[in-house]
Amino acid sequence: MVTVLVTGGTGYVGGWAIAGVLERGYDVRTTVRSLGRADAVRAAVGADGRLEFAVADLLRDDGWDAAMEGVDYVLHVASPLGDENAKDADALIVPARDGALRVLRAATRAGVKRVVMTSAANAASPASYAEDGVTDETLWTVDDPKLPAYRRSKTLAEKAVWDFMATYDGPTELTTVLPGAVLGPILSADTVGTTRIVQRMLAGTMPGTPRIGLEVVDVRDLVDLHVRAMLAPEAAGERFLGTGEFVWMREIAAALKDALGAQAAKVPTRELPNFVVRLASLTDPSLRALTISLGRRNRHTTAKAERLLGWKARPAAQTVVECAESLLSHGVAG
């Protein structure tokens, strides 16, 4: 049997990656920082006997060689926890970069066939999000201290692994996947992940919608892209954008209102002027990373993934509505 290692089994994307790989008939090993979460992960993904656990932390070397033993493929979807609003950007950048290299080095020592690493579309974006046009995987984000630490961390972590592979001479291959805004259903109330933006809209904690455009990709489609990139011979040594349909926040709000009726009564419909968001960000750290995206018009193309891997993302409205329905059904919508 083929064994796939999924890093970060307690995470939002990690949980769906486990479920998706098991569904396709492969054995899965997943890394957790503590075995205390193993039962919760099993319950969330509906695992049978083909799921096992390895204790490993992206911040430490211990455990990674054991985690890679007997593994054929690695889906490195985990990312170290960090404060996106920290004044010291290295608090986010260094763990992301070093964690990615830690996984890749262990995989090459074990002779794993291929590592598929999750990066981000903002690692392939122009200096200004306000620029018109469509960009592809050939573009690399230029590192700039003025950029949000999260965006810098994703860019620098991906660059670090490609630099490592440029000096590596062995059988292990590398592929990176660059998703947009990952939404969709949740597997458990304990793992809300990046769906918090929909959660906040349902709860009415946002006074209005900022003028921000998201390239919404369903978490299930993202996992499908990872698996395709894992198996396709032509995916070796390639970057693949995994963004979805570009929608403004106000369009997400409208989709929720239309589909959910009274359950979306608190969803804001008013679009906030940019200056209001910028003023609010002076006192609300959670808004600071958003200001660079106000009025964003740049988009990414997934033509490469569609052409080489046969991948296609579902409509954004379907994803956000099913995300909201899942949050409601799990009792964590507000």
UniProtKB/TrEMBL annotation:
The keyword Ribosomal protein does not apply. InterPro entries: Epimerase_deHydtase (IPR001509), NAD(P)-bd_dom_sf (IPR036291), NAD(P)_dehydrat-like (IPR050425). Transmembrane segments: none annotated. The keyword Transcription does not apply. Keywords: Oxidoreductase. Residues 4-236 form the NAD-dependent epimerase/dehydratase domain. Belongs to the NAD(P)-dependent epimerase/dehydratase family. Dihydroflavonol-4-reductase subfamily. This is NAD-dependent epimerase/dehydratase family protein. It comes from Kribbella speibonae. The lineage of its organism: Bacteria, Bacillati, Actinomycetota, Actinomycetes, Propionibacteriales.
